[in-house]
Amino acid sequence: MTVINQAPDNDRPPPVRAALSAVTWKEIAYLLSNLPLALVGFVYTVGMVSTAGGLSVTAVGLPLLACGLFLSRQLGRLDRARARALLGVRVDEPTPLPGPKRAGGFFPWLWTSVKDPVAWRTVLYELVRLPWGVLTFTVALTGLFVLWPVLPYVARGLANVDRAMVRGLLSPSDELERRIAELESDRGVVVDTAAADLRRIERDLHDGAQARLVALAMGLGLAKEKLLEDPEGAAAMVDEAHGEVKLALQELRDLARGIHPAVLTDRGLDAALSSVASRCVVPVKVAVDLPSRPAEAIEGIAYFVVSELLQNVSKHAGAGARGASVEVWRAGARVLIRVSDDGRGGARAVDGSGLAGLAERLGAVDGVLVVDSPDGAGTVATAELPWRDRGA
Q1: Measuring CA to CA, how many Å separate 322 from each of 282, 285, 306, 345?
Q2: Which run of H or of E encompasses 24?
């Protein structure tokens, strides 16, 4: 793991030499430029915060603050570039804020911009840099004429303080940036998964129940026309239509079960998983040991995880599979799910596979999927989900 708050070895300046080297001259240039740039940053920051704060009771206060913080981010970018050029400090650029469209609208974007930690750390940097800039400018300028023999050591000490300030206030937080990237990725997975589910439902309705109902309507229309001329033929057509109605109802039940089964809502995870297990091609033992019912979302995800894993058992367990088992239990703040079979094994969560898609879905809710499937020795799939109490 890269820790950006510490300087890697190749970022550290060479040892101090008595003679003024190129590195020392760069450090002196940085110290002398601190004051004029600090004045600009301080005046802007104080003016921006005071103006936005004074207008906070009006409709333009928060949008003005958001725009001001955005410009503070740009000041931080310039300060990082100056530190990189003159002090050799390589600090990663923070993740850009999403625009109003990506943030979900104007008000979510406004709130995200106003509480932007990167911008507020830059504001703090600009405020504390003014007194420090006065000190470094005075010492560096005086040292050029008075402290010449020890100037390299003095410049190095002051520049190291600047390096620490840049890394501490202008570098992004490792954990925060990692979490932002994960959330952006998870949001994309959730959107893609929802779109795929909608396409599946639309396809199932179009190719299944809808087509059957269209044929049913046409058959009933023909039976109506034959009702007076050929009552027996019309009765046979109505009887056939009755059978089509039953099939259409079954298909709609299956489709509804795929969206959210009624048994899960009414009776909970144990009964719902037992129902799924009864449709598997091999005998399945189900053991659910939960102190209470989790939140509806967690319960639904657990159900579909087991459903998909048991479908994989039916499809890929092979002729050697004699049985499977499903275990669900709570461990602290997590829900653990284990689905195992004694089939041929060899399951892999490669890109494009059902297991890879399942792992992405779990990752979108801070879950984990681990698959142990050696060739010829069965498969054990373990999933973890965060526990949330129902109604919380």
Answers
A1: 6, 12, 18, 13
A2: helix 22-54
Cα(79)–Cα(233) distance, rounded to whole angstroms? 88
What contacts 385, CB < 8 A, 6 or more positions away? 298, 301, 302, 305, 334, 335, 337, 362, 365, 367
The answer to whether 312 and 355 are in contact (CB under 8 A) is: yes
25, 140 Cβ separation under 8 angstroms: no
CB distance 31 to 158 below 8 Å: yes
Which residues, including other chains, have CB under 8 Å from residue 215's CB and lie 6 or more apart? 244
How many other CB atoms are found less than 10 A from the CB of residue 354? Answer: 15
* Helix, strand and coil in the chain, % to nearest 5: 65, 10, 25
Residue closest to 2 by CA, chosen among 134, 162, 175: 175
Q: Give the DSSP H/E element, type plus range, for residue 335.
A: strand 334-341
Enumerate residues 6+ apart whose C-beta is below 8 A from 325: 284, 285, 286, 287, 338, 339, 340, 341
* Tokens read off for 310: 């048991």
* pLDDT (tens place) for every residue of the chain, 392 residues total: 223 333 444 456 656 554 568 888 899 999 999 999 999 999 999 998 888 877 877 778 888 888 888 899 999 999 999 999 999 888 878 877 777 766 667 888 888 888 888 888 999 999 999 999 999 999 988 888 887 788 888 889 999 999 999 988 888 765 555 555 555 555 555 555 555 555 656 665 666 666 667 777 777 787 777 777 777 877 887 777 777 777 667 666 655 555 567 777 788 888 888 888 888 888 899 999 988 888 887 888 888 888 888 888 877 655 567 888 999 999 888 899 999 888 777 777 665 567 777 887 777 677 888 888 888 778 889 999 888 887 65
Amino acid in the structure at residue 24: T
Which residue reads 């898609």 in tokens?
357
Q: What whole-number distance in Å separates Cα of residue 386 and Cα of residue 276?
A: 22
Residue length, the chain? 392
Q: What is the DSSP string of 151-189?
A: HHHHHHHHHHHHHHHHHHHSSPPHHHHHHHHHHHHHHHH
Dihedral angle, C-alpha 96, 102, 103, 109, nearest 10 °: 70
